[in-house]
Amino acid sequence: MYKLIFAIITLGVGLWANSVVTSLLIIVIMSWYTVRKGGIPLTIFIRLMMLPMAFLVIGVLIIGINVSEDINIFLAYIPVFGTHIGVSLSGLQHGIIIFFKSLAAVSCLYFLALNTPMVDILNTLARLKIPKLFIELMGLIYRFIFVLLETVDTMFTAQKSRMGYASFSSGYRSLAALAATLFVRSYKRAGDLYTALEARGYEEEINVLAEPFETGKTQYTGPIFINILLVLITLLFKT
Amino acid sequence: MDGNVIKARNLHYTYADGTQALKGVNIDIKKGKTTSILGGNGAGKSTLFLTFNGIHKPSSGEILYNGKPLEYTRDGLKELRSKVGIVFQDPDNQLFSASVYQDISFGPMNMKLPKDEVRRRVDLAMERTGVAHLKNKPTHCLSHGQKKRVALAGVLVMKPEVLVLDEPTAGLDPMGVSEIMVLLRDVQEELGLTIVIATHDIDLVPLYCDYVYVMDQGSILLGGTPKEIFSRPEMLRDVHLRLPRVGHLMEILKENDDFEFEETAVTISQARRELKKWRDMVTQSLR
Ligand SMILES: Nc1ncnc2c1ncn2[C@@H]1O[C@H](COP(=O)(O)OP(=O)(O)O)[C@@H](O)[C@H]1O
Ligand SMILES: [Mg+2]
């Protein structure tokens, strides 16, 4: 539960701070917690961070690019139909701040999603009367993302070691094969999972017991301390 | 009652794609003993196991549990599955939950036990399988050996009468193998469980099993105590299996090097006994 609060407060501070330094700090703190405390392999974490990165780069480009008649604001530009399209300093700054702010937000959410309390999140959601089916699905997806990533990883390595990605065309073919196999495997896995659930008496509903909660005041001091520090650093850099 | 918990008679099973996985299987599982099903890949071991708890319904033949034919009704299956627990080969297919504790609680929750009872059982099962310290870990952080233990705990917690394990030692290091086998033996002694193990790890069989069935291409070729089975090495070789290493050595010593043994020895301790006997015999005749 305290992780949920930690993530939400930090997310709030990150959005409020609007500063690259704070965002970077948040990314580092959250990554550290997720990798060291949550036990998520660093490679998987980095790969997960790359996912939104692709979208963000496109987004930042769109923000960073301005249209104006005044060429003085541009760092670089091309003339188009009597006006100019280019990258401006202010646009770029704006874009970069947004880029890191978004990454910091994503790292907060990943921290939440990748640490144990997924279980707690599901419990909390259940208490908020979110439909059970939805919660079960979330839990299963969460569990099998890791199985899937592992499968992709081994298959990818196997393909690479047989020169599957040596050239562009072979890489294209290998990737297609990987996707197809992954689909078939996932399908088979779903079948196997169902069999295993059935063997333990599954009928229509996944019933599990949450481990007893342990809450203490000390759990909250760390997150609060870190966030006060973040706020102070932000103020320091603002002035 | 003749001491057999599970009896299968002339069992046939065909998969949807036409693969005949079981072709007339006859098998008796003795109560309170450890029985192993020995067979190469694709012999039909996993398929056979899934008929034991009613996941697969045989296309012909019948299965008796404690002398009564299986009932394929909702209640019948539920009852059966709380008595016959299967630990699957790949723990990733069995562990579905984000947390170890939750995963283990799944079976007893399905049995509609009161929550206090579930908690007690989960704690006990984690204790028995030595995973208590992993209780708050996410499932995906566990090592393969740890996953296997959690999977085992998830079945033991239902207090089954028969524990069925599909290749429990596959993918484990030598230490892991003996640890899990010793664990199974301890649990068996404590709870009086009947254990059925599918394996192609031949060296395990004489050490831990009371009975063996040799399976190939969907049928049972022979069955008996490990001693009986391993005194017929030709049969084993026909189905791509072999003697335990020690047994093989003893066979070579006997046939090529004029050693004389009274009994077939397939474990280290048996071989030691036979070799000592032989030594005493030789020193005596020299005197
Ligand atoms: N889901 C399935 N669909 C079709 N054929 C299958 C399926 N599962 C197993 N088989 C086939 O049934 C036979 C026995 O398989 P299995 O019981 O898994 O053997 P074992 O566990 O001894 O390795 C094999 O020929 C296998 O290809
Ligand atoms: Mg199998």
Q: What is the gist of this entry?
A:
By secondary structure, chain A is mainly alpha-helical. Chain A has helices at residues 2-17, 20-37, 42-64, 89-114, 118-127, 132-161, 168-199, 218-238, and strands spanning 65-68, 74-80, 83-88. In chain A, strands 1-3-2 form a three-stranded antiparallel beta sheet.
Provide structural commentary.
The complex is a heterodimer of chains A (239) and B (287). Chain A is mainly α and 239 residues long. Chain A folds into 2 domains: 1-116, no CATH class; 118-207, no CATH class. Helices cover 74% and strands 7% of the residues of chain A. Chain A has 8 helices and 3 strands; from the N terminus they run H-H-H-E-E-E-H-H-H-H-H. The model of chain A has no long low-confidence stretch (mean pLDDT 79). By secondary structure, chain B is an alpha/beta fold. A 6-stranded mixed β-sheet of chain B has the order 6-7-8-3-9-10, sandwiched between helices. Chain B has a 4-stranded antiparallel β-sheet with strand order 2-1-4-5, with helices on one face. In chain B, helix 4 (100-110) packs across helix 5, helix 4 (100-110) runs parallel beside helix 6 (144-156) and helix 5 (115-129) crosses helix 6. Chain B is globular and about 75 Å long. In chain B, 45% of the residues are buried. The mean pLDDT of chain B is 90. Classes of the chains: A mainly alpha (239), B alpha/beta (287). At the A-B interface, helix 5, helix 6 and helix 7 of A face helix 2, helix 3, helix 4 and helix 5 of B. Magnesium ion binds next to helix 1 of chain B.
Indicate the percent of residues in helices of chain B: 40-55%
Summarize the biggest pleated sheet of chain A.
3 strands, antiparallel
The ordered H/E elements of chain B are: EEEHEEHEHHHHEHEHEEHHHH
What integer value in Å does the Rg of chain A equal?
Answer: 23 Å
List how many beta strands of chain A DSSP finds: 3
